[in-house]
Design a protein that fits this description.
This protein is of the alpha/beta class. The chain is built from twelve helices and eleven strands. The protein folds into two domains: 207 residues, 2-enoyl-CoA Hydratase, Chain A, domain 1 (Alpha-Beta Complex); 48 residues. Helix 1 packs parallel to helix 3, helix 6 packs across helix 7 and helix 10 packs antiparallel against helix 11. The chain is globular, with a radius of gyration of 19 Å.
Length: 269
């Protein structure tokens, strides 16, 4: 196993590349992995490092410890960071940069969720393409209990994922949903026993990592475009990526591996 650590600029965020998988860990377990501003500022750099590393085929996002994925923003910083107009503008700019990188990332992302997945933590999980949760996971958006205004982008993504009625209940009530409820409404892909969580995430990540990268890329972009309104879709890029698959060496390798009854060795070329 080959592992390369990435300097994140803060001990509260960990990042490494391990056998084709990029791991990003929110590392603030004493505060249930609540996101401080320095953690938020570190995320774009980590994701860009994964984006630019040709060895990274898939990304896994998780939280340190056993109690939380991410429990939301660090409320202890709200007085200083999110009260005055200037402070809010700085914080919002940092958040916008982080979310922009999430949106633009073309590599598949898995969220490995255990414990609290609350507020900004749920938004982070929704940035992933696939969410796998342990049975002890809990999900909520507590904005209505804190008097916060909830930005349209987050509401839009939640509605797209679970529909308007469930989005309304989650946002209006601010109550916590169990892992089983989250699974039932489509908030997560699967729920697994705590002791099996990492093994199942690793298995799925490895399965994605050995597949043809150009095909995975074309599918991810197509899914993203399908969620846009028809007038805003970049069909030309999707068609271009599909055509690139058919022109690739990997397409020939896939056929050869099928004929020879062996596993393909895709290179993304």
């Amino acid at each position: 196993m080959t592992t390369t650590d990435i300097d994140t600029g803060t001990e509260k965020m960990l990042a490494r590349v391990e056998d084709g998988i990029g791991w990003m860990t929110y590392n603030n377990p004493a505060r249930l992995n609540a996101m401080s501003v320095d953690m938020t500022l570190a995320v774009p750099g980590i994701l860009r490092a994964f984006r630019d590393d040709p060895d990274v085929r898939v990304i896994v996002v998780t939280g340190a410890g056993t109690r939380a994925f991410v429990s939301g923003a660090d409320i202890s910083e709200f007085g200083e960071r999110r009260t005055s107009v200037d402070a809010r503008a700085e914080y919002d700019a940092a958040m916008a940069d982080a979310w922009r990188v999430w949106r633009e990332l073309d590599k598949p992302i898995l969220a490995m969720i255990r414990g609290y997945c609350i507020g900004g933590g749920l938004l982070t999980a929704m940035r992933a393409d696939i969410r796998i949760a342990a049975e002890d996971s809990q999900f909520a958006v507590p904005a209505a209990r804190l008097g916060l205004g909830y930005a349209f982008g987050g509401v839009e993504e939640l509605v797209a994922l679970v529909g308007p009625s469930w989005a309304a209940e989650i946002l209006f009530s601010a109550r916590r949903l169990s892992a089983d409820e989250a699974l039932r409404i489509g908030l997560v892909n699967r729920v697994v026993p705590v002791e099996n969580l990492e093994a199942q995430v690793r298995e799925l990540a490895r399965a994605i990592a050995v597949n043809a990268p150009l095909t995975v890329l074309a599918c991810k972009v197509a899914i993203r475009e399908a969620l846009r309104t028809p007038a805003d879709r970049d069909r030309a890029r999707v068609d271009e990526l599909v055509e690139a698959c058919f022109k690739s060496d990997d397409y020939l390798e896939g056929q050869a591996a099928f004929r020879e009854k062996r596993d393909p060795r895709f290179r993304g070329l």
